[in-house]
Design brief:
Bound molecules: glycylglycylglycine
Number of helices: 11
Largest sheet: 10 strands, mixed
Structural class: alpha/beta
Strand order of the largest sheet: 2-1-3-12-11-4-5-10-8-9
Shape: globular
Radius of gyration: 20 Å
């Protein structure tokens, strides 16, 4: 039997509610598969922790986390803590320190009734967005000069290293080749005259090593339009940190909302643990009401299982989500149903275990 150590950081707002349903999915799997076992360690880090201790996580938090096989994260952010602190000192810190430079965000329509786009079906919206996750516009580099004075100036610098840009683009080419899909780069080289001209150049350079992969390159504004009007243009997409964050929210909007959007923060070399999370934030307006949609966090479990090498369980979890989405009354209110977070989770596990 293989035992996996999972570090669970439920975080803020609806984080604990949705993460608990994902943990129950993993527990249901271990009960039904004698070859796998999971042990869970929960960490209370997040905004409440910050308000008590003045920090988002323990000083030695990264040291503790590095010995786990995976990290399962809920949500970060709460109104009484500045968002840039909660993101910088927990989410981005873990991504950066553990060199989770690949952010895998599938944009997949699992049920045609979920898209607001007229006439689009599952085959039209089925892409994998590969977002650079360690530098770019989220590198945290900059300065704030003459604060509060008339001459005040703020600088936010995008960091695009050759190593960082090449490795994410190469990763995307490898994925596109493995999946036998086209690869589209999204950038903004006509306005960001250093960073994205460089990005486009690296995309061309690395592309020469992959003559078998059909490529496209769009400006981010045009790509955003196409995500809505012609999502079928996209199969595998590679883009920078900021653009990836934004276009995947458009992706969520055309596939059923943020309640269904998942993301895996991957360190491909497995030198550090990878982290799995729903894309959504802490949604303080509905926190504690028991109505948050846990599907995104359960889809993260499917990504986690795939990463650990359990493709069959990963596929079963995704198939269970697909079937769940046909049972409207058993869904949470964001999807037009009446179910609570727990009721949806219970029903989904019933479907999973019946497979
Ligand atoms: N699920 C984690 C979370 O709370 N994400 C909110 C967020 O703002 N994420 C930004 C990002 O993914 O870079």
């Amino acid at each position: 039997m293989k035992e996996y150590k999972i570090a669970v950081i439920p975080g803020d707002g609806i984080g604990p509610e949705v993460i608990s349903e994902g943990v129950k999915v993993l527990q249901a799997i271990e009960e039904n598969d004698p070859s796998i076992s999971f042990s869970f360690s929960e960490f209370p880090w997040g905004c409440e922790y910050y308000l008590k201790h003045g920090k988002m996580m323990d000083e030695d938090g990264l040291d503790i986390l590095k010995d786990y096989d995976a990290i399962y994260l809920g949500a970060v952010g709460y109104p009484n803590v500045p968002d840039y602190i909660s993101l910088r000192d927990l989410l981005i810190k873990i991504r950066r320190e553990f060199d989770q430079y690949v952010n895998l965000r599938p944009i997949q329509l699992l049920n045609p009734a979920l898209t607001p786009l007229k006439g689009k079906t599952e085959k039209d919206i089925d892409m994998l967005v590969i977002r650079e996750n360690s530098e770019g516009e989220y590198a945290g580099a900059g300065d704030w000069l003459y604060k509060g004075k008339a001459e005040e100036v703020v600088l936010q610098t995008g960091v695009f290293s050759r190593k960082g840009t090449e490795r994410i683009i190469r990763y995307a080419f490898e994925e596109a080749r493995r999946m036998n899909r086209t690869l589209t780069s999204i950038s903004k080289g006509n306005a960001l005259n250093y960073s994205h001209v460089f990005w486009d150049q690296i995309f061309e350079e690395v592309g020469e090593e992959y003559p078998d992969v059909e490529t496209y390159s769009y400006l981010v504004d045009a790509a955003s339009l196409y995500f809505v009007e012609q999502p079928e243009r996209f199969e595998v997409v590679v883009t920078s940190n900021l653009f990836g964050d934004i276009v995947t929210d458009i992706g969520a909007a055309v596939t059923g909302g943020l309640g269904l959007a998942t993301g895996a923060n991957i360190n491909p070399e497995k030198k550090f643990p990878s982290m799995f999370e729903p894309v959504h934030g802490s949604a303080p307006d509905i926190a504690g009401k028991g109505i948050a949609n846990p599907i995104a966090s359960i889809w993260s479990v499917s990504q986690l299982l795939e990463f650990l090498g359990y493709d069959h369980w990963s596929g079963k979890v995704l198939q269970s989500i697909r079937e769940m989405l046909t049972e409207r009354d058993n869904l949470t209110p964001d999807l037009g149903g009446k179910a609570t977070t727990e009721q949806l989770g219970d029903r989904l596990r019933e479907i999973l275990i019946s497979k």
